[in-house]
Amino acid sequence: MTLAAFAYQRPRSLAEAVEAMAEAPDARWLSGGMSLLPMMKLELAAPPALLDLSGVEDLRGIRDEGDFLHIGAMTRHVELARDPAVRRDAHLASLAAERIGDPQVRNRGTVGGSLAHADPAADLPAALLALDAEVEAVSARGRRALSVQDLLLGPMMTALEPDELIVAIRIPKHTGHRQAYTKVPHPASGYAVVGVAVAIHEEGGRVRQAAIAVTGVALKAFRAARAEAVLAGQAVDQEVLAEAAGLVCDGQDVLGDVYASAAYRRQLAQVVTRRTLEGLR
Amino acid sequence: MALRGQSVPRLEDARLITGRGRYTADIQLAGQLTALMVRSPHAHARIRSVDGDRARALPGVHAVYTGQDTKGVLNPIPTAWLPPGSDLATTDHPALAWDVVRYVGDAVAMVVADSLAAARKARDLIEVDYEPLPAVTGVTEATAPGAPLVHEGVPGNRALFWHAGASTDEVEAALRQAEVRVRLPLVQQRLIPNPMEPRAAVAQYDPSTGKLTLWATSQNPHIHRLLVAGVLGLPEHRVRVIAGDVGGGFGSKIACYPDEVLVAHAARELRRPVRWVEERREHFVATTHGRDHVEEVELGGTRDGILTALKVRARANLGAYLSTAAPGVPTILFGLIVNGAYDIPHVAVDVEGVYTNTTPVDAYRGAGRPEATFLIERLVDRFAREVGMDPVEVRRRNLVAADRFPYTNALGITYDSGRYHAALDRALAMLDPGQVSRHREEARRQGRLLGVGVSTYVEMCGLGPSEVAGAVGFQGGLWEHALVRVLPTGKVMVMTGASPHGQGEETTFAQLVADRLGCSLDDVEVMHGDTDLVSMGWGTYGSRSTAVGGGALSVALDRVVDKARQVAAHTLEASVGDVVLEAGRFYVQGVQDRSVAFAEVALKAHLAWSLPAGVEPGLEAQASYNPTNFTYPYGTHVAVVEVDPETGDIHLRRYIAVDDCGPRINPMIVEGQVRGGVVQGIGQALWEGAAYDRQGQLVTGSLMDYALPKARFFPPIETDALETPAAHNPLGVKGVGETGTIAATPTIVNAVLDALAPLGIHNLDMPLTPERVWQAIEASGWKAAAGGQGGVQA
Ligand SMILES: Cc1cc2nc3c(=O)[nH]c(=O)nc-3n(C[C@H](O)[C@H](O)[C@H](O)COP(=O)(O)OP(=O)(O)OC[C@H]3O[C@@H](n4cnc5c(N)ncnc54)[C@H](O)[C@@H]3O)c2cc1C
Prior knowledge:
The complex is a heterodimer of chains A (281) and B (794).
Chain A: E1 7-9, H1 14-23, E2 28-30, H2 36-41, E3 49-52, E4 62-65, E5 68-72, H3 77-82, H4 84-89, H5 91-98, H6 103-108, H7 111-117, H8 124-130, E6 134-139, E7 142-147, H9 148-151, E8 152-154, E9 157-158, E10 165-172, E11 178-185, E12 192-203, E13 206-215, E14 222-223, H10 225-231, H11 238-246, H12 262-280
Chain B: H1 13-17, E1 33-39, E2 45-51, H2 53-56, E3 61-66, H3 67-70, E4 100-101, E5 107-113, H4 116-125, E6 127-132, H5 139-142, E7 158-165, H6 168-177, E8 180-191, E9 200-206, E10 211-216, H7 221-232, E11 239-242, H8 258-270, E12 274-277, H9 280-286, E13 290-301, E14 307-319, H10 332-335, E15 346-355, H11 369-387, H12 391-398, E16 407-408, E17 414-415, H13 420-431, H14 433-445, E18 449-458, H15 466-471, E19 480-486, E20 492-496, H16 505-517, E21 524-528, H17 545-572, E22 579-582, E23 585-588, E24 591-597, H18 598-607, E25 620-625, E26 634-643, E27 650-660, H19 667-686, E28 717-722, H20 739-756, H21 770-779, H22 782-786
Parallel strand pairs in B: 1-12, 10-11, 14-15, 20-21, 27-28
Antiparallel strand pairs in B: 1-5, 2-4, 2-6, 3-5, 7-15, 8-13, 9-10, 9-12, 13-14, 16-17, 18-26, 19-20, 19-25, 22-23, 23-24, 26-27
Helix pairs in contact in B: 11-12, 11-20, 16-17, 17-18, 19-20
Bound molecules: flavin-adenine dinucleotide.
């Protein structure tokens, strides 16, 4: 469990980072190292060079931008969990960040790293999907924005180009939405067997907007569109919630493994969704 | 104030928790080389060739060893437990596979290089040409007709067959006559020990003296010395084995492994120190596993709950080779105590040991006794259900009563002492029926099922009388040695044959010394784990170190005091019979002002200016203590669990452990052992389980998928103790290293099945994962029957 040799660079600015990547195209970005370093130790990845992003000031900090929160890619899970603005305007992101791994992992792991790593059982992708968050990415070719929905392609697969780097996440403010994240952790890995993120906005006793996102269940985190549709416009009662929950895995190829078969995961996702929704009432 | 009975902080902790421990992997010697193993990726394959030439040609590579290189140079690794009458089919266990690999992880080659990086590179260049063969991983398939053979010379893959107790016919007859009989198919799944410190070995050979020093993660360095000397063909006195700080073992560091002898061999050949450190993922495949039984068990008794007959048929998966103690674990350590704490007149046990293409199975915390306890505790619950009695009441009616000790069970084992009913009463009092009903009501309202599980276990440990060791085929003694050396300043060095690796004997033994000699803890150093320092020892396992090692220490202390008393009497000009030792001073009885300090006596003994006639200079004594019986700790554990019927999730609500391990020298350490054991036992019940696929690949090969218990999984564990002295050892202690593991597994499973009993679910295989529980609930048709009440209502 020792690392093979690799080159290491710590750029001091975004421009420097992008330039360094252009010069060493096989290099990998290093943020918290909580996913990348274990993969290197297990010889699942062997990048010749690492570009450590911890010195890039532009990737840090959480800013209020009117209708949005701007969250620098290097924001640590622990900061996301505790930040008062995030807790107020995008509570779901804090709730999910709180449930990641253990204190050491939360102290090192970053928002950008988690999204770029795209583990199908990671917590943040579900929360950020439910919050309709957007990712800002930069490369030598320039800057672009893409939704988290478009970012996540599959297990450990994203729409980022190899040389592209996540600079920040932009989350539309969800102030006043009722939000919850429920996670059933795997007893060994601590990752989600099922994780359900819910944000609901009600007006006059009716659901105006319902967002339900699920992680751990399929090859990537997804929005439960049919379940959301059941809730939309409804005055919510027990029956409606149960109906919505029953549709949470609709259209998904549910994963099965040694610990939890597809049938069981589906059941768990439904029960967890129903209880999460009930808990918000 | 006596230190015995005090929870003094552990003396080892300061160094261990500040990173100053000296583990094997910390050893750094000048010129030290690094070894890595090439392990088989196949569960079963013929080796066509191993080509190390490209690896050897790399800069920094000193050697590549293969099975063919070492054949005839290294003797096969022997098995050290040969139960008589068991038709044991031993086979050659080469350190490096000769022609056939028999499990994923079987070592095929070893590379030795200047650095880890060079060794890694070289390892990748070693080409092994395998011809895969069909593999078997479970006992059922391995014993099926026509199954592939793990060893060509072992038909039916049957490694051993062992019978104990009455004849099967007699027990069958008793079962036929029984008013009620219950039967359970039980699977006690395979576990992977995972101590915090993986294994490691560092070897150094001194060509000028011909002496080999081996630092190894060992629970029993003297046994390792014997076995390593044998495998390498070295004289025993030219081998020194040192087990420094060892970070846990749970039985997995008893065995002599290929890696250790290979490192020693390389050090001898290359005349350079060689170091090997196991990686965690290597540990999963290359260190012995535990348990792995498939059983059919049957219990009979009367309608009013009196047990009369027990029949056990167990098939034990021993893996690909017979590890050091493996044959004794599912036989002697299991079969002789299957009746547990109950007086059952007719008992028969059949055990079949089976070879499979899996990692060898050997002792794992409890070793055999958890398996025995699980089956009887599960059966008693099943029986109670069948006769419609409270499982506690059935236990009460069958527990051996306090006035029946010494009690000899139907398998010939004599339990020395116990107050089984008292432990049960104490645990039930802690449980508090009122609180249980409140919890039950609360759970019901929230749509959960509450269950209470009990286990009234007894175990056989403090291994053990050497005569018995011989009679049951253990190829060693089970006595223990201690040496107490008092220095001229009165400071004390103790050398014990026990080899603690987390159990805290450096503290408990120092407490015993300080009490006996009247010095402070700081005046005592307890040394262990070095065969050149400690005269002899059989090591730490089987909860034996305090009972047997402490026994030896106790006798040695008596001898030191006897001699010091003679010197003191001479000094005080009194007769020896009148001199007493109290709080570190010798007094003439009844004359308070005539006294001399123990330390002063020690000095006089060393100076030898004036000693009584016939007394030799110096002040040290040794003792070899050979116990006359095993010890029998026992107790009652109770668990309260809640099952979520919609998810199958199990919530531990309470856990109560009342144990009697005899007088507790250090209650804190005892509690630590109990708690650690309990969580490990619950680990088996709820989370842990090694799984192989059909090809023999271990699919639970990392801590990402093999679930070890975590602190946050548990409620506070409520403990209490009875202290009934063992009748036959000097300290009266019984051992506590394994009790928790032994008691907890059935306690939890009984609790879960109690919760599920209203659904007609009476048996489940471990680990009780949420899915398994949910599937059983689904299959029970519970939801339909309970209608709208089934779901959890908000
Ligand atoms: C013991 C443990 C438990 C864990 N438990 C959980 C859990 O329960 N839930 C959970 O969600 N996660 C868990 N994780 C993962 C953790 O959240 C990681 O921190 C996260 O997945 C990756 O973030 P990082 O900053 O550490 O990324 P790194 O490991 O540094 O990088 C991960 C990948 O992303 C790339 N990358 C990093 N930053 C950027 C960027 N700004 N732009 C583009 N690419 C980038 C890297 O090149 C690499 O490919 C756990 C990790 C560990 C070690």
